[in-house]
Amino acid sequence: MATSHENTLTTNDFQIVWLDNHIEDIKQSDYVRRKVDLEHFIKHLKTYKELAECQQYIASLDNADKVFLIVSGSIGEKMLPSIHELTQIVCIYIFCVDTHKHQEWGKKYSKIRGIFSASKIMLDRLQRDIQLLLHHFTPVNIFTMQNVKEATLQNINKEHATYMWFQLLVETLLRLPQTSQANRDLIDECMERYRNNAIEKRKIEQFKIEYTHENVIEWYTRDCFLYRLVNRAFRTRDIDIIFKFRYFIVDLHQRLVEIHQQQYSTKSSVELTVFRGQLMSSEELTKLKANVGGIFSVNTFLSTTNRSNVAVNFITDVFDRPFFEKVLYEISISGHGPWKWPFADIHDVSCNADEGEVLFDVGSTFRIDDVYEYTKDLWCVSLTLLDINDPS
After folding, report:
1. 83: number of Cβ within 10 Å
2. Of 31, 149, 246, 255, which one is least surrounded by beta carbons within 10 A?
3. Residue 146 or residue 164, greater confidence
4. Class of domain 140-385
């Protein structure tokens, strides 16, 4: 019997699946206390007592869904041979009484992140993994321009439709007025999401007092509720939640426009290269390779750096294959503009002043120039920001 803490499952999202014959006993102890912490990062948490039902659920998921699987040692030994290679499963955590009993067979499976007898240690590791992957997970659309030019209402594919839908959504949001009601919607949603977290609630109260249009970028680059919630809204493409964050999204866009104009309005041309270190599934990388010359669009605000070493360091000592491929985005900005999607060097107003951060607007769209193997375990994806006059 499965237990879910969410009425509906949002696609393209991370979730935790916990399988244990004694799940009811666990739920009466650490599970209940730790569930609140976990839900700050992942809202979808499903528990199962029966192996067959759990396997059926995981197999039914879309390949874009990512599962963190917690399983008891005895069940895991039976289950992993048939499910370990499923694309949906990102990480596996073995939770058992006797860790030594499961060490030997556990070595066969690269997705196992550890074998634990203490739930707190296991859940701490799980939470760190979730935080790491959420920082790396950037929702994108990838497709060829040739297909776009030939597309009609009858044959337009899912990627094209998603791209156009998201661009229209953003354009609509940016036309909305900044009202006191929009501000209240933002605060209320943040408070609801963190209703059981005293630390984040204090930060939200601080935000209510200190926030201004001028410090919107500082708040976005802090390690706090705003970055996590705004990006989660875009990542899940939840229109209701995105709408509740409209006040902050519009402010951040407008501030980027202002700084962009200050930095580039008097320049006759721009020549700039920035970088981003990113983890990517092998399926996404294959799709990029197949669409050189096509379009790459980002469905959130995109943080980059003007220092390649900072970008590479960001993906050092993180998940290796077969979890994800390591990718270095090399983004070129060249020409006279104007650019539909503003970008700006924000190191003066960012909480990460020493990272040479350059921030791109939500929905920014790039041409895929090349995809090649940079080192034996690092791919380079060369992109160029499109401007209004680009023939593409």
Report:
1. 20
2. 149
3. 164
4. alpha beta
d(CA 115, CA 99): 6
Q: Which of 169, 132, 146 is nearest to 278 (CA)?
A: 132
Q: Are 383 and 366 in contact (CB under 8 A)?
A: yes
- Between CA 349 and CA 260 the distance in angstroms is 13
Let me know if the fold of 3-136 is the same as that of 140-385. Answer: no
Q: Which residues pair with 115 in a beta bridge?
A: 94
385 to 141, 338, 348, 392: CA distances (angstroms): 14, 11, 23, 11
Question: Both tokens of residue 141?
Answer: 């659309």
pTM of structure:
0.79
Element (H, E) at 93: strand 89-95
Long-range contacts of 53-57 (CB under 8 A, 24+ apart): 53/1, 53/2, 54/2, 54/17, 54/19, 54/79, 55/79, 55/82, 55/83, 57/2, 57/17
* pLDDT tens digits along 8-35: 233 346 789 989 887 766 555 555 566 6
Where does 3-136 sit in CATH, by number?
A: 3.40.50.2300
Domain range annotation of the chain: 3-136, 140-385
**Pick from 348, 333, 201: nearest CA to 267:** 333
Query: Would you place residue 46 in the very low, low, confident or very high pLDDT band (cuts 50, 70, 90)?
Result: confident
